[in-house]
Predict the 3D structure of the following.
Amino acid sequence: MKSKKLFDLASRYMPGGVSSPVRAYMPYPFFTQHAKGSKIYDVDGREYIDYCLAYGALVLGHRNEEVKNAVTEQLEEGWLYGTPHEKEIELATQIIRHYPSVEMVRFTNTGSEATMAGIRLARGFTGRNKIVKIEGGFHGAHDGVLVKAGSGAATFGIPDSNGIPADSVKNTLQIPFNDANALLTIIEENHAEIAAVIMEPVMGNVGPIPPEKGYLHDIRKITSENDILLIFDEVITGFRLALGGAQEFYGVDADITILGKIVGGGFPIGVFGGKRELMELIAPSGSVYQAGTFSGNPVSITAGLKTVEILSRENGRVLRRINRLGDRMRADLSAILDEAELEGYVSGVSSMFKVFFSVEGKPVKNYDDALGCDKARYMQFFHRMLDSGVFLSPSQFETNFISLAHADYHIDAVENADADIERTIEAYRENIL
Ligand SMILES: Cc1ncc(COP(=O)(O)O)c(C=O)c1O
């Protein structure tokens, strides 16, 4: 097995043999040779339908032809200028058009950088130090938010990373998801000290957990009434739930919006944005510092622009088509669990889905519920799916994603439109027992 050999070699030179923890799973991860559309191919010549999709970045699938052409043209012009350029304005305009709560943006290179800067901005604006974070929320791997974090931190049972001084997280308060009263309590206990609430409007890093009806509205109301800024980390949900992200989908505006993944079209990016009075505090207009050599690089911006253009086609129908595949996937998976009378819970929204191996099939509403699921059973199932040619996200706590490449590209086509989805559902049926 070439993957095994490469993993042994990689493990000598890189911790765990990987460049990001959640890519590592037992006994070794497959090494990728190439990828195209909905498929990823390993160095041993195996083909997998990919539902990991670079953890949600590839909403059009791998190597989309139009994005590739746009990027290739851009490469002829240059790939890093270190100066302003016109396409930054174009992408900023697209974001502002779809997110009415955003009047100005700053481009960064990753979602982590964007959340770090968004929190700094909230503190700079309010003059307060404390932030409230949701248990199991993942906002990147920087000190202030690596407390009870989701993603790899949950997978590997490292809720609080070593190497982070207690002082760095003393201002990070935690509340459970889907519990607006918990926010009221923590505000009472920390009166007038809280700068912001930072949250993923749909929890994406402990598996997809959508908000219960009214929850986001309650959080919006409580934060507004207490002059606390609301930061929506839409790194996963942005340009996914709708072009205007969770804010459009649920009808709730944030004060600071964080984007990433999709908006870079598969190239590194992060964005934070908000109303003018807030954003003008960012250097050089204001005194909240933020900077980056590669920020706004023309390759990421070009790929992002093309991706947003494709998703927006036919009044957003392209994106809605992807989301309908999610509806179908969740409905069929629920039917499989019901028919087989299996303990499990199908969760998700739009193009996000997951089967949680929860006790007695109990609904999963927050971090504690997710942690109560059967991780070992999930990993056995994950390997059986791999053997059947389906690459799911390699953790009970990571979301599976669907891309445009999983649908027939011609959105009106009926025949064979969902061949990947059908094969996948069949594989679930065979392997989930
Ligand atoms: C919700 C959320 N925020 C922030 C991040 C960090 O983004 P990046 O990996 O680009 O730094 C992630 C990454 O998975 C994420 O899912």
